């Protein structure tokens, strides 16, 4: 009998050890899981953070927002964890939206990006975007759209290459890396609330060492995507007398350095389908006109980028093995302004 009691006591004690590690576990329905974090700076130099949280009730398409103000982003996120009724879980954040008033000061942008990258709770693969609008009003506008599921905002950036080739995606770790890069700058998508749609893509802000230098249009952003090996498939172009769709694209890049002369040769091949054309327009005419149009757009964008000393195409990356390491820090000032680019477009009919 005593022997049975001994075994029973041992069994109970062993069972208790299995429960020790689970005492602080929160059920999923007792957590608030923000999908988007909005960050802006106030006139008093304090930060305001807004969380966009989907409501997890079955069948719900709604979401709610929580806003907190403080001296820095990290302290605000901690305050929110303290003040909310349910446990806040930041590891599922998919998008960070920064209001453009914060991007005016290089130190502010760098501070926020460095915190987001080093945070152990916010995933570095989360997307980053900039908005020209008040973030709270933007989130409110999104919620007002009929049949708008909370995850639709994230889906906006992942339509697929065939549907929206102009839209780019930029992740936290990519922006963080650009803060320290001598030879490559980065473009961050700019989005506002749409009038009848969830969002409106306004192009991209060009970030150079943590400071916004310029903003490029959606059509110009297409070139940045091309040089990042993202195809132009699905792009529709109007020539006035004809409309075409790009069915496939490929870009070949070759760099060369002879003494102080730097050259990049880029050949863009486009396979197109003619959607409609006016009577009398020939395929040869469409091909030549499209080649000239695309080449002109590129050179206009490159000229502006070179003037701003912003290497959004990453040309400097191709010369990292041809320029002494100690001189790479001078790429934008000494080498990039002298760079010559031969950009040619070759159009073929499908």
TrEMBL record:
Subcellular location, record wording: Membrane
Domain Spore germination protein N-terminal: 24-192
Keywords assigned: Germination, Lipoprotein, Membrane, Palmitate, Signal
Domain spans labelled Spore germination GerAC-like C-terminal: 202-349
Primary location group: membrane
Span of the signal peptide: none
Pfam families in UniProt: Spore_GerAC (PF05504), Spore_GerAC_N (PF25198)
Membrane topology type: Lipid-anchor
Top-level taxonomic group: Bacteria
Family stated for the protein in its record: Belongs to the GerABKC lipoprotein family.
PANTHER family documented for this protein: SPORE GERMINATION PROTEIN B3
Name this protein carries in UniProt: Ger(X)C family spore germination protein
Native species: Paenibacillus violae
Taxonomic lineage from the root: Bacteria, Bacillati, Bacillota, Bacilli, Bacillales
């Amino acid at each position: 009998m005593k022997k049975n009691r001994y075994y029973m006591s041992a069994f109970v004690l062993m069972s208790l050890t299995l429960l020790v590690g689970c005492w602080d576990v929160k059920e999923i329905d007792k957590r608030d899981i923000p999908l988007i974090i909005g960050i802006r700076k106030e006139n008093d130099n304090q930060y305001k953070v807004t969380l966009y949280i989907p409501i997890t009730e079955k069948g719900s398409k709604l979401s709610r927002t929580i806003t907190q103000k403080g001296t820095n982003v990290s302290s605000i996120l901690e305050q929110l964890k303290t003040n909310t009724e349910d446990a806040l879980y930041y590891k599922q954040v998919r998008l960070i939206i920064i209001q453009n008033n914060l991007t005016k000061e290089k130190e502010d942008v760098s501070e926020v990006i460095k915190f987001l990258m080093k945070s152990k709770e916010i995933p570095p693969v989360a997307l980053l975007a900039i908005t020209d609008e008040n973030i709270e009003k933007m989130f409110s506008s999104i919620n007002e759209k009929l049949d708008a599921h909370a995850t639709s905002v994230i889906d906006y950036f992942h339509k697929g290459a065939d549907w929206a080739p102009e839209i780019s995606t930029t992740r936290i770790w990519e922006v963080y890396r650009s803060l320290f890069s001598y030879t490559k700058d980065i473009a961050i998508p700019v989005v506002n609330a749409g009038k009848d749609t969830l969002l409106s893509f306004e192009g991209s802000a060009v970030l150079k060492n943590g400071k916004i230098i310029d903003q490029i249009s959606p059509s110009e952003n297409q070139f940045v995507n091309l040089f990042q090996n993202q195809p132009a498939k699905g792009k529709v172009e109007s020539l006035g007398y004809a409309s075409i769709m790009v069915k496939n694209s490929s870009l070949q890049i070759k760099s060369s350095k002879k003494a102080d002369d730097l050259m990049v040769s880029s050949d863009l091949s486009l396979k197109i389908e003619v959607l409609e054309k006016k009577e009398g327009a020939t395929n040869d005419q469409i091909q030549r006109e499209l080649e000239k149009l695309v080449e002109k757009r590129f050179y206009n964008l490159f000229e502006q980028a070179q003037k701003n000393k912003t290497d959004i195409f990453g040309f400097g990356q191709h010369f990292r093995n041809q320029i002494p390491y100690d001189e790479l820090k001078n790429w934008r000032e000494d080498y990039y302004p002298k760079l010559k680019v031969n950009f040619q477009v070759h159009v073929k009919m499908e």
